[in-house]
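Minutes, project check-in
Item: structure for the 58-residue chain
Input as provided by the requester:
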Amino acid sequence: MLPTFIAHMDEQEGRKVFEDSVPLGRMCRPEDIANMAAYLASEEAPLITGSVDGGQGI
């Protein structure tokens, strides 16, 4: 999806602009998704319905 957001920019410049728009200041990494999935599947999160979006809330 990143190419869609930065189509009109240089790749490094586009990544920087995108990362600056994320409140946590970085893009999601595969381990972020894996850790969230493991937590949500655990018995420690029976009422949690969250997502990993770096604080953007989209």
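Outcome recorded: Residues 30-41 form the longest helix (12 residues).
No further action items on this chain.
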